[in-house]
Amino acid sequence: MPRLVEPKKLPKAAHSATHELLRAYLLFRYRQTRMKSLTLTATRQTALEKANITNRNPRQATLTLRKALDKLVDNGTIEGYSGALPAKPHETFEVTLAAHVVHNLTDDDE
Questions:
Q1: Is 104 a member of any domain?
Q2: What DSSP designation does 54 have?
Q3: pTM of the model
Q4: DSSP-assigned beta bridge partners for residue 78
């Protein structure tokens, strides 16, 4: 993946926005599933970990995850996600990737 911005412009070298981390994870998962379906299933715990959401309050963590998913919808990475996000760590939710993002991935592989 290309760099987000120049390292000296970042406050910390390891900094990435929550929605960017979540985007990277979802695209990685898509490749792991051998690009069979645009709809991915993720557990709440995995999504929080991969997006580096560390809120201790579960409601606040859900709100942060929802904001990150909404940003991905706004920027066209995903078409949508299941309405009610899970409250328990092992519960799952679905995310549907945007077709144009997937086609860009397959074009890069050729």
A1: yes
A2: -
A3: 0.79
A4: 97
Please state the length of the chain. Answer: 110
In a domain, 9, yes or no: no
Residue 25 is encoded by which pair of tokens?
A: 């994870």
Is 56 within a domain?
yes
- Does 106 score more than 60 pLDDT? no
Phi, psi of 14 (to 5 degrees): -90, 5
Residue 89 structural domain: 14-109
Predicted confidence band at 41 (pLDDT cuts at 50, 70, 90)? Answer: very high
The shares of helix, strand and coil residues in the chain, as percent rounded to the nearest 5, are 50, 15, 40
Rounded CA separation 13/73 (Å): 26
Please, which pLDDT band fits residue 110 given cuts at 50, 70 and 90? very low
Question: Following DSSP, what letter does each residue of 31-50 receive, concatenated?
Answer: HHTTT--SEEEEEHHHHHHH
Q: Is residue 87 part of a domain?
A: yes
Predicted pLDDT at 25: 94
